[in-house]
Design goal:
Length: 561
């Protein structure tokens, strides 16, 4: 979600009041504890209003108070760390999946391991890619919430306008119609760095210029880079294109960067060519810079690589939203298949809740189960819009699913994806389409299921992500050249950040703690299948002979079986 709030009207903007027909709810067993705490990044007033009503209902039903702490996404990672270091962890945390390895791998882990029953429930009832994104060391650490994949979003109107333009040559008309046909049938486009490349040629043909007193600026972009304030979106955009070009990100066994290959350099050169092939192009000054270009009057971006959560364009586009289509990520010259970076968030329980030994952990898991279980009753009221009245929820949609859907986010629970409905504000109280019948939700869900590649989890992921974002912006926003040097510089910086092999707690240092834990793990279980150990140097799910050899070599010792 993140910066979406700053640019679009959230579908919850009328302030949602949550009401539940409690007679239809299966109540959890009330724990001895009377208050549990929850840290999230849902800071918007409407979000607080929604969850305030949800937690109030839970308190009424169980007697357990849910005290929420919120902080903007940009500060959430540091807030979790600071609370952990100060011994002030909340009982529950809503967190990004890429932080699991860090939070679960500390010497005293921040996260509590869910019961086998909870893990089995999640693995059976949540989307496969979201389960993968919530699992590390064979442990599924919490309930997945929002779900994000990446895809090529295109505006068919701009294609059709260019095809119908009398100034467009017959050859170009035929070419663009062929490209549009591929997009409409979900066939990935292909690209290389040549001017006649399918993707490049279409992007250039669909670009329109306006003269200004200071020179020409792009009025309509054939392809626009997605530059957001956070490095996260630059990284996932890059990863989707990198993987679709046959490249890889990191080798976490060695460890070392792998993106500084021909595959990665080609991706960044493509972005450079499309963004800075003209000396007068300034994306920050052009009238259609990536956001705010979706109104019926403008419609100024023909193609852009977007994540699921950018559904704020639904409000901005109005009736023009129907012009937008979702297609797979284009395949590069070194690639053979389209790949979409997929990541998710999840709700977890902390080890601090367990250590309190007052029932906080049990109460936290009970609450998370309650907001995630399917329900067949209840409604969302919209005060201030009496002409619309109640908007009934679809059968078997969870409270979490309701929140995500009405906030225009794809939920991760399978039943929510099947039964959830998009609220159409123009439908005068009628429930909108099922998610599977909504072209945006369906398109991104298909992209995740058919082409999804889960995010790469590792400690230092946040620091490495910043370096990728910096590399991306240097090339795309500042036009830095040569591109190869920019990519190599980022790889060099990342090499200094990654933990060393044999570093069990992944703090950047191979120390005595690592050796002691390795020996304990290695000796504890016959067959070297210690799946719960933290000494898995090769990250293959168990601490085995190879791990022992690596760490002994790091200490300058030889291994004797």
């Amino acid at each position: 979600m993140k910066l979406k709030k700053k640019y679009s009207m959230c579908l919850l903007a009328n302030l949602l009041v949550f009401t539940v027909a409690s007679a239809f709810l299966a109540l959890p067993v009330t724990a001895p504890v009377t208050k549990i705490t929850w840290l999230t990044h849902w800071t918007e007033p409407d979000e607080g209003f929604y969850w305030g009503n949800v937690t109030a209902e839970y308190t009424k039903l169980t007697g357990v108070t849910i005290e929420m702490y919120t902080i903007d996404f940009e500060g959430l990672h540091d807030e979790i760390n600071n609370r952990y270091l100060g011994g002030q962890d909340t009982d529950m945390i809503h967190m990004h999946g890429m932080w699991i390895t860090e939070m679960a791998n500390w010497k005293k882990p921040c996260l509590a391991e869910p019961s086998d029953l909870v893990q089995a429930d999640i693995r059976a009832n949540w989307a496969d890619q979201a389960v993968k994104g919530s699992t590390w060391k064979n442990i599924t650490w919490g309930y997945p919430s929002e779900y994000n994949s990446w895809a090529l979003v295109y505006n068919r109107k701009l294609f059709n306008d260019k095809i119908a333009d009398p100034k467009t040559s017959l050859d170009d008309k035929t070419f663009l119609q062929g490209v549009l046909n591929k997009l409409e049938t979900d066939v990935p486009l292909t690209w290389d760095l040549g001017a006649t490349s399918e993707f490049v040629r279409a992007a250039k043909l669909l670009t329109e210029w306006n003269a200004t007193p200071t020179g020409d600026v792009i009025w309509k972009s054939g392809f626009s880079p997605f530059i957001e304030g956070m490095s996260e979106e630059q990284r996932y955009q890059f990863l989707s294109m990198l993987w679709s070009n046959g490249g890889d990100y990191l080798n976490l066994t060695r460890p070392a960067p792998l993106f500084n290959s021909t595959n990665g350099e080609q991706v960044m050169q493509l972005y450079y060519n499309l963004g800075f092939v003209y000396d007068t192009y300034d994306p920050l000054a052009s009238l259609d810079y990536w956001f705010g270009a979706w109104t019926p009057e403008q419609q100024t971006i023909a193609m852009i690589i977007f994540p699921t959560w950018m559904t704020g364009v639904r409000n901005a586009a109005g009736d023009a939203f129907a012009n937008l289509g979702i297609a797979p990520i284009p395949i590069g010259p070194s690639g053979s298949a389209s790949v979409s970076a997929v990541y998710n968030w999840l709700n977890v329980v902390t080890q601090k809740a367990v250590d309190k030994k007052d029932g906080s952990a049990e109460a936290a898991w009970a609450f998370l189960d309650w907001i995630n279980e399917p329900r067949a009753a209840g409604s969302i009221k919209l005060p201030g819009a009496p002409d619309i009245g109640d908007v009934p929820r679809g059968d078997q949609v969870s409270i979490m699913g309701d929140y995500l859907i009405y906030d225009s986010i794809l939920p991760t629970r399978k039943t929510d994806q099947v039964n959830g409905r998009v609220w159409d504000r123009r439908a005068a109280g009628h429930v909108g389409k099922l998610l599977k019948d909504d072209h945006w939700f369906r398109g991104f869900n298909d992209t995740a299921n058919l082409y999804g590649h889960p995010d790469v989890p590792f400690v230092k992921a946040t620091e490495v992500q910043y370096e990728i974002g910096t590399m991306f912006e240097k090339v795309v926003t500042l036009g830095a050249t040569p591109v190869v040097d920019v990519v190599e510089a980022a790889a060099s910086d990342i090499s200094k950040i990654l933990p060393v092999t044999g570093d069990i707690d992944l703090n950047g240092i191979v120390d005595l703690f690592d050796a002691v834990i390795l020996v304990k793990d290695y000796d504890a279980v016959p067959g070297y299948k210690w799946t719960r150990g933290r000494s898995d140097c090769t990250d293959d799910g168990y601490a085995g002979l190879e791990d022992a050899i690596i760490i002994m070599q790091n200490y300058g010792r030889t291994w004797t079986p």
